[in-house]
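Appendix B, record 7
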Amino acid sequence: MKLTILHEDNHIIAVEKEAGVLSQGDSSGDPSLLDLVRDYIKAAYNKPGRVFLGLVHRLDRPVSGIMVFARTSKAAERLSREFAGRGVVKMYIALVEKKGALPSDEWVECEDDLVGKRGYSEKAGSGSRNVRTAKLRYRLIDSNERYALVLVHLLTGRKHQIRAQLSMRGMPIVGDETYGTAEKLPDGSICLHAVYLGFRHPVKEKPVELFSEVPGRIAEKIEMGDTVRERIITLCRGSGG
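Structure tokens (predicted):
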């Protein structure tokens, strides 16, 4: 896999995760982005022994987009705290199926109680255990006859949160068979992409903004002209406002 670096300094490195690649290793033994970035740092800086690389957040395997790693233990501790404290602005682009009336051009607030199951999440019932509240908001960006392009501002970090909450509102993400899509993508990916991260640098304490281009599997299904791209950037920079 080719490594696309969005930002790199002595404390952090941010890269693009391709859909289908693990964020970190699991029992499958498949290569992970964590391993790939670690190998890059080892080779690029001629580091002996095992390279430190802190994982501070994750993306689901079929999801693509921005991931940031910590290159020092100090940065890892501070970034982990920032992610846990919701100090990071996390924005996603989702291509969803049009199964009903779409929202107007305004932010729609969503709050649901979810229960994580093996391999998926669902709406909590009255007797559910380990219930966690999931919050996000979304906004319609563009649509055509079959699809709608939605910008999602993620406010909590629950398992499969965006996938489950959009599906519950009749907007399953294209390719996401687990949550009700009728369309499967050949590579097993889904049309969900982490397009923006905004956070404070863990050491320099300066704002960091990271943007990622909308990938081809989404752009080929809906018009992605300059106006749409500029609108996405503007909304992300406004922290969803």
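Remarks on this record: The mean pLDDT is 92. Residues 5-237 form a domain with the Pseudouridine synthase fold (CATH 3.30.2350.10).
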